[in-house]
């Protein structure tokens, strides 16, 4: 029996050795087959119920999230779940439904607690995982996305997932099950509704999105290209006095308010009747986020960066259960055309700011990119597949000279390598 689920039971306060034999026989399947979407939904349970039940809030969501992250975490701070919990392999995939439900859980937890850590985790999902699992026109989506995703092709033998089929990571209207077709469209609207919140006489800008708030006697317009750059311009028209709070991310450096240096913390302004403008600016620094198995992910602010893999898009039209899946209701497979087997040669980075197009998460026109020095290595495919990378490289020995590779935001790269080694 795989002992990892037993460790999870113990960390939740259960002693595996004292339960009945029947429970021992089913505990593995119960934990491994707990649907990933149910787990992401349950994270908000204490936040939404403790007042109703007359109980103190204990931040139980943090304890549960730590366990999930320890055994099933991803670079974008979601959890692997190719239908069920799937470990730390960056090729195992995360269900689209799990992304939008985890986002909603974090929105609700922040609304109930005001704890900024949940908004920062929300941003990681919204600015990375959600756009990555959708096509740029949002007409198609994946059932599961991979952190290291070198192709989106049918696996010609038994699929590498726990329960999903060989087309689960291809793009389509319904590439595996219909739930994500129904649920993926919740992600952006609920995220946008969380841009502004209120508490008494306070209005809180929790997520810095280009948006307009029209409340009772108050209009706030925020112009920004965050998270691709870190400049915010607020235009406020108030018919009453109120307190305005702007959440500043913990990673923010060199914070300036209306051109003057300020501390990196939540900013609170007493707004009087009339018109007010506020300009916020800060910087973020690229850094390596440590991942399991001596791999690293490059992060800057709320954005992960990946080696983008160019691809050929192949249409798949078919009939299923008597229903024709013809264009534009068809599926697509993405076949790689450029190398993906890289490791980092050093930690020198060059940030490039580009013009933002009408499609911010575009692989053809990324709003920001980072140039890194990299070398190709003998990574290899996961046996016996030809379109899925190994969990870890076959060898870390370089097979090329140092190359300058331009990394794109994770959400811009439909095929990508995100977790990679740092080559000595």
- What gross morphology would you assign? globular
Number of strands: 23
Number of domain modules: 3
Question: Please, how many helices?
Answer: 9
The rounded Rg comes to 23 Å
Question: Portion of residues in helices?
Answer: 10-25%
Question: Could you explain the architecture of this structure?
Answer:
It is a single chain. The protein has helices at residues 4-11, 21-32, 36-42, 45-53, 60-72, 96-113, 116-132, 179-183, 187-193, and strands at 94-95, 144-145, 196-199, 202-205, 211-215, 218-224, 231-238, 242-246, 253-257, 260-261, 267-271, 274-283, 287-291, 295-300, 303-308, 311-316, 318-320, 323-325, 331-336, 342-353, 368-376, 403-409, 416-417. The chain has 424 residues and is of the alpha+beta class. It has 3 domains: 4-191, no CATH class; 195-283, Immunoglobulin-like; 287-417, no CATH class. The strands form 6 sheets. Strands 13, 14, 15, 20, 21, 22 and 23 form a 7-stranded antiparallel β-sheet that branches. The chain has a 6-stranded antiparallel β-sheet with strand order 5-6-7-12-9-10, with no helix packed on it. A 4-stranded mixed β-sheet has the order 3-4-8-11, with no helix packed on it.
